[in-house]
Amino acid sequence: MPDRAPQPVDRQLPTDEARDLISLVRDIAQHEIAPKAAEEEGAGHFPREVFTLLSRTGLLGLPYASEHGGADQPYEVYLQVLEELAAARLTVGLGVSVHTLASYALATYGTKEQQVEHLPAMLGGGLLGAYCLSEPASGSDAASLRTRAVRDGEDWVITGTKAWITHGGVADFYTVMARTGEEGPRGITAFLVPADAEGVSAAAPEKKMGMKGSPTAQVHFDGVRVPDSRRIGDEGQGFAIALSALDSGRLGIAACAIGVAQAALDEAVGYATGRQQFGRPIADFQGLRFMLADMATQIEAGRALYLAAARLRDAGRPFAKQAAMAKLHCTDTAMKVTIDAVQVLGGYGYTADFPAERYMREAKVLQIVEGTNQIQRMVIARHLAGPETR
Fold it and tell me: What is the model's pTM?
């Protein structure tokens, strides 16, 4: 029905290389991802072949060093790639963000020997990662996790269950936070666990309201033995590594949220300019025009917010507060914009014949993952007013 094709986002990119990269991503999104998104999401199909393609074209390691298989791209560019991918299909955009999150610990805190041994395969060798922090009884209160790693000679033996793991059961490696010492955040250590290690298994994927093509599952570690050479960072440093990773990961979620919101806006504009009522396009009616204007403004504000945070990160400056703000604002924007997109389409918006309802269902999870938006408000408030008194 739309007779007005959506225009590509006019991006401010720092280099010609970045512009070529965005062109490549748009081509892959248009020809390899978007055409199959609705059908595969409806069927719950995980597009592993797409991630293989992204790895082969260098898109799974963008913000990491080229010497280890990355692409040396600043976060300012990497996040805009995520936005383009998420606009085509959130399962893919979020999947790249999660893989980047899972690779962060080794890329940032690993030894040179570890990085040389593992990163090339993780970043450009076709592997796919997952990040294991949350547990059935410890979500927002991640420091109370119960998965334990016990030292046995030159090995560690990991036992416990992780929950809400994106790529659970399909990942090739898991970055796992496990308790090696005292209670609380100082007793947690990070490990790189291969998915084919004896004792690693995944439960059946959760049945979700959206993102059905992206498996989310519990992952069980039943006496999994890993060598000390797969410990990342110092003993007891794991929680600090996890929080540092999440600061960057939240920017990935923010970019994905804006991608979904942009896709919903494009769908709404296309429909409104093509749908005739009372002898003219419904886009002529002021109430609807104002709704579209508000949607576009919220998206532009969110994009500016996540890019401002990314540029702080690229400059080596503190960005945790801005990352929390970006995650909060962008995911709330995605929820609001997708709801409005359904409203613009009216009854058609409530049917699976149009993607607006899928965008709305997918947007909801972005307000929850990698720190709920209530947690983001707590993080922001701590930067403003200091820690809570007890």
Answer: 0.96
